[in-house]
Design brief:
Blueprint lengths: L9 E4 L5 H12 L3 E5 L14 H12 L3 E5 L6 H15 L4 E4 L14 H29 L3 E4 L3 H5 L5 H6 L1
Parallel strand pairs: 1-2, 1-4, 2-3, 4-5
């Protein structure tokens, strides 16, 4: 693992069971990181959850390639479970070096048809989830005198997009 830019680093990737998060987790592991693969196991709109299969499948891919990873199925949308994601890194690998706040859901509806639940749920995952995981890691970063956050903006947050008042506000 010499020459790899993340050797011995511990990286949490939220929403890492599928899509961009999965690719990030696999890349981090390929670069030498020990990875906490966090995924609630829900659908793209955040429904469902409790399905550990997506996170566990990515962990298995990382392990088969010779990397180190653990699965976590906690939600970023609430402070306690989000803090547990970071605790998983500490308990499993003894430290935390980076939090990649990738978890996200979409509940697109034109504003006058969007329910309060759909608005608040997207805000909880994208905005509050990024804060909750980052806040949980911040004291470890301070103690270690190092650490990195990676957050995902979106053009929807800068210029808007039809049916995405919730997503745009969160981004």
């Amino acid at each position: 693992s010499e020459g790899k830019c993340l050797t011995d680093k511990v990286v949490v990737v939220t929403g890492a069971g599928r899509g961009i998060g999965r690719a990030i987790a696999l890349l981090c592991a390929a670069e030498g990181a020990k990875v906490v693969v966090n995924d609630l196991g829900g659908s793209a709109d955040g429904e469902g959850g409790g399905d550990a299969h997506p996170a566990e499948q990515v962990v298995e891919e990382i392990r088969k390639a010779g990397g180190k990873a653990v699965a976590n199925t906690d939600s970023v949308a609430d402070a306690g479970p989000a803090a547990n994601i970071i605790k998983t890194a500490i308990d499993s690998f003894g430290r935390i070096d980076c939090v990649v706040n990738n978890a996200g859901i979409l509940r697109d509806r034109i504003s006058h048809r969007m329910s309060i639940v759909d608005f608040e749920t997207v805000i909880k995952v994208h905005l509050l989830g990024s804060f909750y995981t980052s806040r949980a890691a911040a004291n470890y970063f301070k103690e270690q005198n190092s650490g990195s956050f990676v957050h995902f903006p979106s053009p929807s947050g800068l210029i808007g997009n039809f049916g995405q008042a919730n997503y745009a506000a969160a981004k």
